[in-house]
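Entry 14. Structure prediction run on the chain below.
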Amino acid sequence: MSARAIGYVVRLFGGYPDTASDYIECATRAAVEAELVDYGWRDNPAVWVYVVTKGQTAAEVIAALVVDPDPYPDYFVERGPRGGVRWVLA
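Output returned:
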C-alpha cells in the first residue's frame, strides 16, 4: 500500500458490505480503535478498515464499497492477545 491515509472507513463487526449505514467515517487511527467493541461472548471482534487517500472522500469510498461485490479491506483491526490493538494488513 503506497498511498498515505488521510482518513478511514470502518465496517463494523457484523455489518453488511452492501449497506452504506454499516460504514463509519473515522479521521484517525484512534477513532478506528474506538469502534472496537466487546460483546462479552466474543472478546475480540475485529472491524474491517478501508483507507481514504488524497483525492477521495469517505463518502466516495463508501459508495464504491456498497456496489463492490467483494469489498476486501485494507486492514483488520482487533484487540491483541495480550492487550493493545493490532492493525493487520489484509
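DSSP finds two helices and five strands in the chain.
Filed with the rest of this week's runs.
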